[in-house]
Amino acid sequence: MLPNEYKRNFELEEEYWWFAGSRKIFIRLMDKYFSADRGKKILDIGCGTGIMAGYLEKYGRFYGMDYSRLAVNFCKQRGIKNLVVSSGENCCFKNETFDYITALGVIEHIENDKRLLEEIQRMLKPGGLAILSTSAFDFLWSEHDAANRHFRRYTISKLKNLAASSRLSILYESYFNFFLFVPITVVILLKRLAGNKVTSGSDERLLPNVPYFINWMLKSLLILESWIIERFALFVGVSIVIVLKKC
After folding, report:
1. Average pLDDT score, the chain
2. For a FRET experiment, which of 26, 90, 117, 165 has its CA 20 to 30 Å from that of 211?
């Protein structure tokens, strides 16, 4: 991401509907698949400005990793320790170091996405678990992806193939941001029909300011999805979340 986007994340992540709602989905899945044990170790790949650290610490000793030194500096402002600057394609940790790994909104930023999954497999202990989230469906490509410096969007089948080739099994898979899938798709396709082209020079993500009530309503939709996803996988959505296991 561009430097100004890390600053926006740092300022918005606590309450903005997309961050807060998605975080609830991830936490519900972590509570379902991870066990709280201070003797374990957990790595957050692409830790960004560190909003997840306080939630992940309950599952073990937290380590944060990001390729951006600026992101790591924002983490330090939150008082987070055990931070490293390293690439997801060439992680600096030893084999079989972690019980749990998260990579939330990371793989789409990695040019060699198979390499990221191989690194996750390498760093997990036998039986270790990972939770990964990413953007769904190439036809939803927009200026948001360009500003985020994404390489691609995914389908669950594409992630399944990547996981299998990296010797990871998928325990759970689901799309999410289901309720907004149709309106977001319509807006993107209408812009495309109107001749709006997405260029690599786009420099600002689609995080518009919204009134408090709208923010609350959108966040509530994702919180509702977190309850659904804990029980049933969704067949379509703007994003994807999967749970991986090293056998």
Report:
1. 93
2. 26
Amino acid letter, 120: I
Task: Extract the tokens encoding 13.
Answer: 């992540």
- Residue 154 — very low, low, confident or very high, per pLDDT cuts 50/70/90? very high
Residue 166 to residue 55: CA distance in whole angstroms: 28
CATH of the domain at 34: 3.40.50.150
According to DSSP, residue 7 is labeled: H
Q: Which helix (H) or strand (E) holds 56?
A: helix 53-56
CA-nearest of 91, 103, 52 to 240 is: 103
- Check if the beta carbon of residue 12 is closer than 8 Å to that of residue 74: no
Enclosing H/E stretch for 61: strand 61-66
**At 25, which amino acid appears?**
I
Name residue, tokens 């994003």.
Answer: 239
Question: How large is the average pLDDT for residues 112-131?
Answer: 98
**57 alpha-carbon distance from chain centroid:** 17
Lookup: tokens for 197:
């082209």
Residue 160: both structure tokens together = 């399944």
Pairing of strands 83-85, 98-104: unpaired
Does residue 5 surpass a pLDDT of 90? no
Q: What is the domain count for the chain?
A: 1
Could you tell me the two tokens for 190?
A: 């209408």
- At residue 199 the predicted structure's pLDDT band, cuts being 50, 70 and 90, is low
Is the distance from CB of 119 to CB of 90 less than 8 angstroms?
A: yes
